[in-house]
Structures are given as structure tokens and as C-alpha cells.
Write a structure and sequence with these properties.
By secondary structure, this protein is mainly β. The protein is built from no helices and 19 strands.
Length: 176
């Protein structure tokens, strides 16, 4: 488990914000999936990632405009083709955002809201990101999560999972 507050922020090349990389799996240089929290400080385009599917959600701040969508902390997570590199416009000041990137050629990724129990059947990698923290239950174990935390495991046991906590949270399941 890792919290965004435990990770040193890295400045973007365009100086428009900061990224806190929570996980690049299975290897930082050759990742199949990458999970991060970003602080967007200025309007500008997203970086383009050919062959990558992206999921994006606003965690705090007044929101952003991507494509024809205006996203706020209450909005559902948005998935889009990472090759497109959309323009991002801040609604009214900086935001903190959740980002998940998945290389489509390297397996299948499923992302669902964690407001319902989840079954890890067939997953080689399973993660949960929680905006507000809470309690993750997997089989007979319970694990508290700090706000803006990622919990994950490889080769998860096929046991019921549940999560209870304030704010947004997502199950992420990767399989070949």
C-alpha cells in the first residue's frame, strides 16, 4: 500500500503541474499499468501515449474540462484513448487528480467504482485506489487505507472484496 503523501512530486516537463507516481507495474521502465496522482496548476495539453488507455478523475479542486466533459470531484471516472493528448482547462484554479494508464497490448484492464463488493476471479493484478481513505476487506483480513492511497496485490486469491470509505474509490483488475 502507498499513499500519495508518501511520494515525492515530480515536476512536469511543461511546468503545468506535478505527478506523484504510486505504481508502475510490473517494472517502472516497462510498465503495463501506471497509477499516479497529479496536481494540475495550469491549462495545457495532456501528454500523448500511443497504445495506452487512460482513466482520469478529479479528486479535489473546482474541476477541469477535457473534450466536451467538465469533470468535478463528484464526476464519474473518465476513460479515453491516451494517444489523443486532449487539452485540459482548469475550471477555477488548481486540481488534484487520479490517473490510471494501461498499455492495451499488454493485457486487459477493468476499472469499476468500489461502492459494491468485487470478486478477483481471473485477475493477475488487483488494485484499489481510495480518494478519502477507508477500510478494505479481502477474505478474512481488513486493512485501513489513508486518503489518496493505492492498495494492490499480484495473483490475488479469489475471495470477496469490499471497501467502505468516504469519497471516490475504484477497483482495478488486470489480466492477460
Amino acid at each position: 500500500m502507498i499513499s500519495a503523501e508518501q511520494v515525492a512530486p515530480q515536476r512536469w516537463k511543461n511546468n503545468g503541474g506535478w505527478t506523484r507516481e504510486l505504481l508502475a507495474w510490473p517494472h517502472p521502465a516497462q510498465w503495463a499499468l501506471r497509477v499516479s496522482v497529479a496536481d494540475i496548476e495550469a491549462d495545457g495539453p495532456f501528454s500523448s501515449f500511443e497504445g495506452v488507455q487512460r482513466w482520469f478523475a478529479v479528486l479535489s479542486g473546482r474541476g477541469v474540462r477535457l473534450y466536451d466533459y467538465e469533470l468535478h470531484p463528484e464526476s464519474e471516472i473518465l476513460s479515453f484513448d491516451g494517444a489523443l493528448g486532449p487539452d485540459c482547462e482548469l475550471v477555477d484554479g488548481p486540481t488534484r487528480d487520479f490517473n490510471l494508464m494501461h498499455r492495451r497490448a499488454q493485457g486487459r484492464m477493468r476499472v469499476v467504482a468500489a461502492d459494491q463488493p468485487f470478486e478477483a476471479q481471473g485477475s493477475q493484478w488487483l488494485g484499489l485506489f481510495s480518494a478519502g481513505g477507508g477500510l478494505l476487506k479481502h477474505g478474512g483480513r481488513a486493512m485501513p487505507l489513508a486518503p489518496q492511497s493505492l492498495a494492490w496485490c499480484e495473483q490475488p486469491a479469489a475471495q470477496p472484496l469490499s471497501f467502505a470509505g468516504p469519497g471516490q474509490a475504484w477497483w482495478m483488475s488486470w489480466s492477460e
